[in-house]
Amino acid sequence: MTDEEKEAYEKLQEKFELVPKKEQKKRISKKSTHDSENVVLHTIGIVKQPLYAKTFATSAILFGILYTFLYGLWRIPVIDFGFNRFSAVGILDYAYLLIITAITGLMFALFKYERVQHVKSGSKAGLGGSGLAGIVSAICPVCQGITITALGGTIATLPLAFLVPYIGLIQLMTVLILGFALYLKANSVYTQTCITCKVKVDKKLHTEIPSTGTPKAKEPFLYRNNIAFGALIVLVLMLVANNFLITTAYANAGASAGLNGDSVSLKTGFEYGSKVTLKPMPLATGESPRFQGYRTIVKPLPTISELSLSPPTGDVVQDLVNNVVPRGTPWYGQEAGVTFDDPIQAQQLWAKGRAIQLDAAEEQRWSRIVNSFTCDYCCGSPQNPTIITRCGCAHSAAAQGMAKWFVKNYGDKYSDEEIYGEMARWYALWYPGPTVKRIAEELQAAN
């Protein structure tokens, strides 16, 4: 009789109570002493079976689609709904997604095995926990500032650039936690016991205490489960340490910020103000990037519109959000029909400016401006920025129309650089999360 046949035979005996409970406990205790290698082999054996292989593959594919969506690798067609990525995807990113997808698929396969085989193991809460952890970990790298877009515009944003230095740690901890959860589940399935709740009291009539009529209050889960309680303590300590490190890092970064009239200088090359904004620009000849492989660098640019500066908060990221992302209505707003407070409608109106007819000199000037303006977010990345005339997104069309409008109507009053800067100001409105994150990254690198 093979090992699989013996195992099936034992399960039938236990199911129909053909084996005394003492013998069942001996069998379980004997399996519990097996090493991790047997747990791994047992799990592999489960996944090799057609039914569970199908469950694993289906779960992995579905969660792979979900994780890659949350990671910002693709958007929902037609409505263009999705998350903005702030950097190019590397080999480590793909490896990370592959690992958490595989772990989640294995968890579902083991859960399916439990249901079909009626295996008694640990709580199934780990299944939901692993899926949730994977979702949070997948979205975290892309939510260095969560920016949700749809129909060509930004519909929600939550700047979280302060997490940038800790993304690697977050991913590592996620893989370790998911791996540990998978091992607990696999071991529980193999031994048919719950590791976190092995001690169980058998109910026997002759040992039962007569009921007093008042049900005994059940202790909270965290009091009964030492592993869960310990994990909670570790999580709280990590959050406290993380908050302290974040506060310290950005307090140091903001300590050098100086107010000069209507502009703020965070550091040389990082000035913003009422008529100055910050944007990644193509590298000049001989210029070095702040990050190896980047082909653009953040620089200050003069603008056409004028903003009222918000007072400093002591938080550099929040100050960037308050002063680089524009609000209100610019002086030309009524004439152009646009306002910073309605970015999507403004985007649509600016795009109509592409129909403006220019003379030869104006056309040449417009071409010079738009063919040096890059997109590092939607159509490109810092390592491979895209000139907006080669990008088909709604933001590109709006920027091109905007440039035509200014060249035609105010070309004699404003320079190419100022028109360029005004386009950059609108891009900060359409891409608030990526813009603030990129500036914060380069500021930290410069420090």
Overall description:
This protein folds into two domains: 34-200, no CATH class; 257-446, no CATH class. The strands form four sheets. Strands 1-2-3 form a three-stranded antiparallel β-sheet. The chain has a three-stranded antiparallel β-sheet with strand order 4-5-6. The chain has a two-stranded antiparallel sheet with strand order 7-8. The chain is mainly α. Helix content is 54%, strand content 10%. 33% of the residues are buried. It starts with a helix and ends with a helix. It is elongated, with a radius of gyration of 30 Å. It has 16 helices and ten strands.
What shape does the CA trace take?
A: elongated
Average of per-residue pLDDT values:
73
Terminal CA distance reads 69 Å
Helix-residue proportion = 40-55%
Strand sequence of the main sheet, in spatial order? 1-2-3
Give structural attributes.
447 residues; mainly alpha; 2 domains; 3-stranded antiparallel β-sheet
Write the layout of secondary structure elements.
Blueprint: H1 3-15, H2 21-32, H3 36-48, H4 50-70, E1 82-83, H5 91-117, H6 125-142, E2 145-150, E3 153-159, H7 167-191, H8 221-224, H9 226-254, E4 258-260, E5 263-267, E6 270-273, E7 276-282, E8 296-302, H10 316-324, H11 333-336, H12 343-351, H13 360-370, E9 374-375, E10 386-387, H14 394-410, H15 416-430, H16 432-446
Antiparallel strand pairs: 1-2, 2-3, 4-5, 5-6, 7-8, 9-10
Helix pairs in contact: 3-7, 4-5, 4-6, 5-6, 5-7, 6-7, 10-16, 12-14, 13-14, 13-15, 14-15, 15-16
